[in-house]
Design a protein that fits this description.
Radius of gyration: 20 Å
CATH topology of the largest domain: Rossmann fold
Strand content: 5-15%
Structural class: alpha/beta
Order of helices and strands: EHEHEHEHEHEHEHEHEHEHEHEEHH
CATH superfamily of the largest domain: Glycogen Phosphorylase B
């Protein structure tokens, strides 16, 4: 079976990796990776290099990203990427395409596939993120997909309501959490040397823009700066850069400014990579920001997370997530609370044993999928 795996960012590729390894070791599948979006941007760390180092069977690169993250450039970039993928789908055939998540680039790739009647397997539909236009893109992808692999039963129920059928919907849990107990992480010494991080104890910070009500992001980015500058008296700060969403550069500019002012207390890294990021989660005192990794993965590393604003609003939460609005006083009050908390001892609802095996069994048993020989 010939499978195309669409990846547009460091985040989705890290999630895919356990599944890609299973495909690689299964004689029934031939996989080609289709990389685009932020992978091809120097300012996002040229994460295409990490894909190439994994020695995938074949890697395609498609399209370019707009240099600016204004509303107009994101909209026009969407149209350009649809055109780029129309050409790609016209020249390449697959029995099944895997799609993960909810980014605008991923939506453009899937929308271009519809006239070609390509079969799409969507990972993690049914979720809700009311503070991001990703919510719309995720639902668009779900409506164009044939298989739906969700994180929880609640998300499966939402998806049934959205697509008006229960066919093709399977609750499998989070791929990124599979086998976490057996993953060998780098030492913190290795990570800190690789990225020139000058400290061992820190708060792990990741802020992305809120793409619903995007005009507020200038204030939000300034709020993030104010909060982090006040925390420097008590904590070191390790920041991973914002995504290429609408006005994401506003946050990165503030983080660069903060690093220039406090070079021994603040380190900004555009992309750590999956294993290094997991090590940073394990190493940190707690997490601060509005990233999905705080919602989904941090509980497995027994960390508390201060989740700021509405970007993740609507997602299910473990008990380690502490929600707070984009208000500097309230964020600092929550930091004081988080600093007094010990290790999170609860469960992670997104863990489900055998996630990748379930996915492989489901698609292997579908007689409607053509079996290609490669």
């Amino acid at each position: 079976m010939k499978i195309g795996v669409l990846t547009s960012s460091r985040a989705d590729y890290g999630v895919y990796q356990p599944l890609l390894m299973k495909f690689k070791n299964h004689e029934g599948f031939y996989v080609e990776v289709i990389a685009f979006g932020m992978h091809l941007q120097e300012k996002q760390g040229n994460t295409i290099d990490a894909i190439e180092s994994d020695e995938c069977s074949k890697i395609h690169t498609v399209g370019t990203m707009p240099e600016s993250d204004s509303v107009f450039d994101i909209a026009s970039g969407y149209g350009s990427l649809v055109s780029d993928f129309a050409q790609f789908w016209n020249q390449h055939t697959f029995d099944l395409i895997f799609v993960l998540g909810d980014r605008w680039e991923m939506s453009a790739a899937v929308q271009a596939s519809i006239p070609f009647e390509l079969k799409v397997a969507h990972l993690y539909g049914g979720e809700t993120t009311l503070g991001a236009t990703d919510n719309i893109y995720r639902h668009q992808i779900s409506l164009a997909s044939h298989y739906h692999f969700t994180g929880t039963d609640t998300y499966s129920d939402r998806l049934r309501a959205l697509i008006d059928t229960k066919e093709g919907i399977h609750t499998v849990g989070s791929i990124s959490l599979e086998g976490l107990e057996s993953i060998v992480l780098p030492t913190w010494l290795e990570v800190s040397r690789q990225f020139s991080i000058p400290f061992n104890e820190f708060v792990l910070v990741t802020f992305h823009p809120e793409s619903v009500g995007a005009s507020r992001n200038e204030d939000y980015a300034q709020t993030a700066f104010v909060v982090l500058e006040k925390l420097i008296n008590q904590y070191n700060i390790l920041i991973t850069g914002a995504n290429s969403d609408v006005m994401g550069s506003l946050f990165n500019q503030q983080f660069e400014r903060l690093q220039e002012l406090y070079p021994t207390k603040v380190k900004l890294v555009s992309a750590l990579g999956k294993l290094n990021y997991f090590k940073a989660m394990e190493q940190c005192s707690f997490m601060l920001g509005n990233t999905s990794s705080g919602i989904i993965e941090a509980a497995s590393f027994r960390k508390f997370v201060i989740n700021v604003g509405d970007r993740q609003k609507g997602r299910l939460r473990n008990a380690n997530v502490l929600d707070v609005p984009f208000n500097s006083k309230k964020i600092l009050e929550m930091v004081n609370r988080a600093g007094r908390l010990n290790t999170y001892e609860g469960e992670n609802m997104f863990v489900k044993p055998g996630t990748t095996e379930m996915i492989i069994e489901i698609i292997s048993n579908d007689k409607g999928l053509q079996k290609s020989s490669h």
